[in-house]
Amino acid sequence: MERVRLYPTTSQTIRLMMILDVTRQLYNAALEHRRDAYRKAGVSISAGAQRRELTEIRAEDRRVAA
């Protein structure tokens, strides 16, 4: 595997950090949602259901839409 080194500008670094932060928050929220649904109701939430929910979130939250 070839590695590529990035040298982002300050504004690119800020943008990348924001993207990583939002992605981390979304992943953790989705994991918690699946975990709670299974623990409380014994229900498994499909990836498709979470994708549909994410589409709704994108419409409401401009950080996620970006």
Keywords:
mainly alpha, 0% strand, single chain, 3 helices, 66 residues, elongated
Largest sheet: none
User: Per the principal axes of the C-alpha atoms, what is the gross shape?
Assistant: elongated
Mean pLDDT: 93
Order of helices and strands: HHH
Roughly how many Å apart are the termini?
A: 30 Å
> Which range best describes the helical content: under 10%, 10-25%, 25-40%, 40-55%, 55-70% or over 70%?
over 70%
Share in β-strands: under 5%
Structural class: mainly alpha
Q: Count the strands?
A: 0
Low-confidence stretches: none
Radius of gyration: 16 Å
Number of helices: 3
Summarize the structure.
Helix content is 76%, strand content 0%. The protein has 66 residues and is mainly alpha-helical.
Describe the structure.
Helix content is 76%, strand content 0%. With 66 residues, it is mainly α.
